[in-house]
Design goal:
mainly alpha, two-stranded antiparallel sheet, 2 strands, elongated
Length: 72
């Protein structure tokens, strides 16, 4: 019997951060650190990390972060 893990909002946010980090690294390798694409990923990643920190340190970790697979 396979047990399915219920992912919390924080798990989903961590996954999205890791996914975006990988995309940023790949962009930097392909287009350079100062490319518009890499900077875009970096800024988006910064925003997600700030959201994560606010929810981790200041809010209830069960608070909704995602709505319809988009970050609230």
């Amino acid at each position: 019997m396979k047990i399915q893990k219920k992912y919390t909002e924080m798990d989903r946010l961590e996954h999205k951060i890791n996914q975006l980090r990988e995309e940023m690294i790949q962009s930097a390798a392909a287009t350079g650190l100062n490319s518009h694409r890499t900077i875009y990923y970096s800024q988006k990643l910064d925003k997600l990390i700030i959201i994560y920190q606010k929810h981790f340190y200041y809010y209830d970790s069960n608070e909704e972060v995602f709505h319809d697979d988009k970050i609230v």
